């Protein structure tokens, strides 16, 4: 229902990468949808995930249960463009070049029309459409018409949260290759 209506809203639309679009999902079941999304994340991760996060397991297995901690879990949505579908289990990512290294723990799943991200102990929700409220504001049999403003991201690499265009990936590759060659020549001179 959620995916089907999302597909109807996004199919054959010409969205620009890194833009934001507003779509309306008419008469969906938000709580059912977020439970299904959570189950999908369980299916692409290690079986121990349900033992490590009992709150999520109980949330999925109990039909009427609603409510998850937004300090512990963040569920994000984006409109998928690009060639690579992702099924990424839990991964820690971060920039080790920064003074205060603060890793993000994420799992990512993408299949048209959407990409989905589950973040543990969310650090930065900007850049995503946060749908965690699906778990906290609706009952199991409650339908809702929801207007969402969603980013459009390309998926052209297997790296989590990497939404560069193919052109950007090639430019980065060339820049890194040239830098590597220059550094190698400098080492040989010394």
From TrEMBL:
Stated name of the protein: Uncharacterized protein
Organism for this UniProt entry: marine sediment metagenome
